[in-house]
Amino acid sequence: MEQIEPLLKIQDVAKRLNVSTSTVRNKITAKDWGSVPKPSVTIGRSYRWKKEDLEAFINGCQTHYKIADKNRLPANFAKYIKPC
What does residue 42 show for φ and ψ, rounded to 5 degrees? Predict the structure, then answer.
């Protein structure tokens, strides 16, 4: 039987990014996806992340972490994203 990995809470993401939980929450509210990864699951105001999504965001993986609107990104943004 395959084991399902638990989703990460906002505290886990904040700790991994070395920022406060309020910083993560503020960035989510502002939809600042360049600073924090987009939550994998949102239910109301409860956010959860898959571990692989967080790691991909930290590593700058463009094929795993999908950006919704590429037209809104700065022109030099691509140099910060590494292919997987």
Answer: -130, 125
What does the alpha-carbon distance between residue 21 and residue 29 come to, in Å, rounded to a whole number? 12
Give, for 46, the enclosing helix (H) or strand (E).
Answer: strand 46-48
pTM, 2 dp: 0.68
Q: Rounded to the nearest 5°, which phi and psi values hold at 65? A: -95, 110
Annotate 6-42 with b (16+ C-beta within 10 A) or e (fewer): ebbebebbbebbeeeeeebeebbeeeebeebbbbeee
Question: pLDDT tens-digit profile of 24-35?
Answer: 999 888 888 778
Q: Identify the residue whose tokens are 């509210």.
A: 29
